[in-house]
Each structure stands twice: as structure tokens, then as C-alpha cells.
Design a protein that fits this description.
Distance between the termini: 11 Å
Shape: elongated
Strand content: 5-15%
Largest sheet: 2 strands, antiparallel
Number of strands: 4
Strand order of the largest sheet: 1-2
Number of domains: 1
Helix content: 55-70%
Oligomer: single chain
Length: 218
């Protein structure tokens, strides 16, 4: 059990599904929780555009309806990230990862800017395509080992996980917002309203850190 980034402090089972806390997963969970609380209590910043070569500048004001929607999506993104950090089930991990991709699009989808909405649309296509290898990898895990439990995979008693399953899982996570497909998000950051937009980067980073542990199992 030591290859689970530390001996589990606690394992909570829900039938065939479970969550577990190790020094690694609880650190990632607390980071996601802290930033989600920060998003919940903070007000969005006002983005300032400055004219190049002059003193002119404009301040973008976020409407109440837009702010509420984006805050809701940012909180949902944080909750999905927290779930992905502590789940002990491969399928649930892929499900939470897909939810992170969806909420990332939702965080900026309400912005009334053609550039931002076009970028969100392009990223949405990438994230949608990434679900194929993401869930395909989970299916291969189940077919090859007969289990989706990370705890069982860590014990080493199950058949070895095929390399293609791990590769599909990593490719799916990459498509949900990590490099090189992260370039599809670049224009999204022109959207005003930190800390909501920052949640896109943080959630993608946390998912990537967790998948490193996941593919080391089995």
C-alpha cells in the first residue's frame, strides 16, 4: 500500500466505490478546498484595458447575472476537483475529470466577448474529444484487471494494467486542459473576473498531479 503516495489515513467505502486519504491526496484535496472557499467569498476583479501608446483605459464591469453563473461554475469546478483528488475508483476519477473540463468551459461561457467565447468553443471541442481516450482508458482498466479500485490495484494481486490503458488515461487528462492542448485555453484568459478564471488553471494542475499517482498503480 505504500505506492499510494503514502499509507492511507482513512478509507471510506460506498459499496464498490471508495475514497481514501493519503498524505498526497489530502494535500491536493485541501488545496482545492481552500481555493474553492476563496472563490465562494471573494468578489471578481475588474479587468482594465489600457490603450497601447496612450493614457486611455477602460474598466470592464461584470454584471450580477454573469457573476453568479461564473461563481457557480467555479465552485462546481472546485467540488469536482476535490472529488477527483480523493476518489479511489478509476471510473469516478475519469468522471470528475470530465466534469472539470465542462465547468472550465462554463466559467467563461457567460462572458460577452467573441474572442473568449470562440476560445471556449474550441476548448470545448478538445475537451469533448478527450473524453474518448479518458473513458476508454477506464474501460481497459476494468477489462484487463477486473477491478476499478485503486486500493486493489495498489495491492499488486491483480493482473498488470496494460500500458495502453495508462496512456489513454493520461491523454484524456491532457485533452482536458494540460499541455500541449492547453493552448486552446489561452484566449479564455482574456475573460475578466479573477479568481474564477484562475480556477481553470488550478483544477487542470490538480488533475494532472493526481493522474500521475493513478497511472503508477498496477
Amino acid at each position: 500500500m505504500t505506492n499510494l503516495a503514502g499509507v492511507p489515513y482513512y478509507i471510506l467505502e460506498f459499496g464498490d466505490e471508495l475514497v481514501y486519504f493519503t498524505p498526497y491526496t489530502i494535500t491536493l484535496f485541501l488545496l482545492a478546498l481552500t481555493f474553492t472557499i476563496f472563490v465562494l467569498i471573494s468578489m471578481p476583479e475588474r479587468q482594465v484595458d489600457i490603450a497601447f501608446g496612450g493614457d486611455a483605459y477602460t474598466t470592464k464591469v461584470i454584471s450580477v447575472s454573469e457573476m453568479r453563473f461564473r461563481r457557480f461554475m467555479a465552485i462546481a469546478c472546485g467540488l469536482a476537483s476535490m472529488g477527483a483528488m480523493v476518489t479511489g475508483d478509476i471510473f469516478n476519477f475519469t468522471l470528475f475529470t470530465a466534469m472539470v473540463g465542462i465547468t472550465n468551459v462554463g466559467i467563461v461561457a457567460a462572458v460577452k466577448s467573441p474572442h473568449v467565447q470562440n476560445a471556449a468553443y474550441q476548448y470545448g471541442l478538445v475537451a469533448l474529444s478527450a473524453t474518448v481516450p479518458l473513458f476508454g482508458g477506464a474501460a481497459i482498466y476494468a477489462a484487463a484487471t477486473g477491478s476499478l479500485s485503486m486500493i486493489e490495484l495498489a495491492k499488486g494481486a491483480l493482473p498488470a494494467v496494460p500500458f495502453v490503458a495508462k496512456a489513454f488515461l493520461v491523454l484524456g487528462v491532457i485533452g482536458e486542459g494540460m499541455a500541449p492542448f492547453y493552448a486552446a485555453k489561452a484566449e479564455m484568459f482574456r475573460a475578466p473576473g479573477a479568481p474564477y478564471v484562475i480556477m481553470c488553471s488550478l483544477s487542470s494542475l490538480l488533475i494532472f498531479l493526481r493522474v500521475i499517482e493513478v497511472v503508477m498503480l498496477g
